[in-house]
Structures are given as structure tokens and as C-alpha cells.
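To: structure subgroup
Subject: Chain for Friday's discussion

All,

I'm putting the inputs and outputs inline so they're searchable in the archive.
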Amino acid sequence: MMALALMLICADGLRSAAPLARTALRPSLTPRPVRMNEGNLYGREPLVLTWDNVERVVEEAQTELGTIFGSSQENQDIGLTGALELVDIEGPTVIVSLSGTFWHSLDRVQPRVDNYIRTRIPECADVQFDNDEECVFGQSD
């Protein structure tokens, strides 16, 4: 009887209305408006690719991404001492170095740093990492 209730008679034959019935019971999902900052993802205006601007963005990254670098006293108390340093700029490529101890794994730290730098400095085409050999990263999930 229930199966019969879930059948819908259409002009071209019988079709299952089960997917329709499931969606009809869900509340209407209207997309929420997306609010974008005028400048970019981090709420600041994009910068031009210069040595001074990259140094500034590297310092900002350590603050904005503080949990991966151990910027807070609480993180430092448990031994997180991650640091980010500008090594060089070669054309549109920024080369940075990671050093110290990180809570997150390398495959989580590098993409976040890369995204932060390239979002703040759109002229930057690539971020390369020249990591310290003694750098310690957390486990991958």
C-alpha cells in the first residue's frame, strides 16, 4: 500500500516518486547570500609583489594562521614554535622557509601558507618552500 502511495502516474508511464517524496519532506533550502569582502578573503586590499610587501604578508600570515605557527602563549607552552621566513623572490615566485615545530602536518601547513600569500599578493604565481631539515610537523589525518 505504501509503495503504491509513492508511485506517480505520469503521461509517459509509471515512475517512482520516492526521490520526490524525500525532497518534499525536507525544508526548503534556499541558498544564503555570499558576502565577499571588498578586497579579498582576508579582508585587506591586495598588495603588489615587492620585497617589503612580501615580508609584511609573511609576518601577517604568522599572526592570521597563528594556530599552525604557535603564535599564542598557550601554543608555545606545549612546544609549538613554527616560524615562516622569506628567503627570496624570483620573478613571480616567492620562496619561503618553514622552521620549528608545527601541530599540523606538512600537507596542511604548506597549502594554507601558499593560499594566504597568493591571496594577499595576486601577482605571486607560485610559493615554493625551502624548509629547514629539522622542521617537525604533526601527523597527517
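Points worth raising on Friday:
The two ends are 48 Å apart (CA to CA).
The first strand starts at residue 7 and ends at 10.

D.
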